[in-house]
Amino acid sequence: MSCQFQASPGVDAEMLGTLLLAQTGMQPQGTRRIERCYLDTFDHRLAQAGWALDADLQSPYPPVVHLRRLGTEQQDQLHGLTSLPARATDVPRPRLRNQLTKITAGRALLPVSAGEITVRAFDCMDERGKLTARFLIETSSESPASTVLRVQAITGFEPVGQRVIRAARRAGLIKPLREDCGLFWLKKLGRAPARYRPKPIIPLRAEQGSSRALAKLLRAYTQVMQTNEAGIVADLDSEFLHDYRVALRSIRSWLGALKSTIAPDLRARFRAELSALNRATGELRDMDVLGGCLEIYLAACPEVPPAAAAALRHRVQSTREAARAALKTHLLSAEYQSAMQSWGEFLDALGRGKHAGRRGRSPVLNTVCRALRKRRLAILRFDPVVARHDPETLHELRKDCKKLRYLLEGFQRLYAPEALQRAVRELKTLQSAMGDTWDLHVHHELLQRLVQGDSAESPPDPGALQLLTTLGERLGSLERKQVALVDAAFARFRAPRVQRLYARLEENRT
Hints:
Layout: E1 4-7, H1 13-21, E2 26-40, H2 45-48, E3 51-57, E4 64-69, E5 75-78, H3 94-104, E6 110-125, E7 131-140, E8 147-153, H4 158-170, E9 174-176, H5 181-188, H6 210-234, H7 239-257, H8 264-299, H9 306-331, H10 334-351, H11 364-380, H12 384-389, H13 393-410, H14 417-433, H15 437-452, H16 462-494, H17 496-506
Antiparallel strand pairs: 1-8, 1-9, 2-3, 2-6, 3-4, 4-5, 6-7, 7-8
Helix pairs in contact: 6-7, 6-9, 6-10, 6-11, 7-8, 7-13, 8-9, 8-15, 11-13, 11-17, 13-14, 14-16, 14-17, 15-16
């Protein structure tokens, strides 16, 4: 049974209320005016998972928050909240907290107001006084007003709700709501969430000029960067910076792979500016990842005294705060704003055919196929034997894999979907074999710097030094294991069937 309905044209809340009161056992429960908020992550993870998190605010009472299946009235009420939850960890009920944590993956919950709504409640009771269904008539305060009827059936008494709905539909008062009531209210107020993709899929034509096609892709990924700036400055969650840096790395990679499509002097200038921006954002990202792993590292080294562990946590947090403050200052600076404006003007000109390099007017498919081959051959030059003696060689392989993947994903509309997906899948297999060894490298160096940073004033704590030793041993052991895994994955990538797949992409054969 549908649970959410929109009032038919010309039907208002009074007419719906009159019909409900005419039904057997219906009792009015009063009217209240609330402010309705809907919460979701920046990238709409709750909605994508089929859930809505809504909150009714009625001063001076605490918020009434519900987790609800989209398009239904199947819901759980979150009790014990004195304010809107900023993250899933703010939810007091363990089961719901764990469910929300799994869906949101640490992202902040951002409220979007749907404005003031008047709610008229009606309870339907049987002859024994037992609640069998609840009906809510919700009307917006905006003009012209919109009205929604929500039916909350009680388990075991579903026919009661169905009977009332049939009567309302026969009277022509309601029609099924084709979308969740939350999205309906947000749309009515012009606050529907904008579609967000951290990796936009850009339609391209194979015969399109390379510089114009590249400009289109660069502009879309620049928009991703700019969309995430406010979240980074407000420090809402670490994923804003992550998405920003993925878009930035993609742009830098394409400028390198397709360098012949842009005038050399401008390409060199903007690559240098983007490299500086990559460095400016790198320290905070490193500290974010280290902060997320620190407790795991400390748990692996129980001999570290509690005082030393607490001091290290404080040092990591204070270093992160300093990095965040520096990045915030940079993103709000006139220098950054001017650089982004110049970059945007360059992209606009590139899209109009200006600043093209020697291959700027060549068909983009030809240019990208040539770049794919170059990136693939760079991966094939990897020597697993050298990696056994120099594990940092794995990092170079990891970078080459990322560059190839950026090409495949950015220009995916130039290729047959099935062949492209198979190519990306094989590349992911190789990437996953490398695991987290490079993060461990970075973290070991960061911790060493943090632990020994004040050594001029006082000697490092022995417990903290023991953590470095244990982490170093773990790194060495993991690297030896990863080299063996990469050996097998690399052999799979080099297999003739995989290389034929890539060769067909490079020759534009499916």
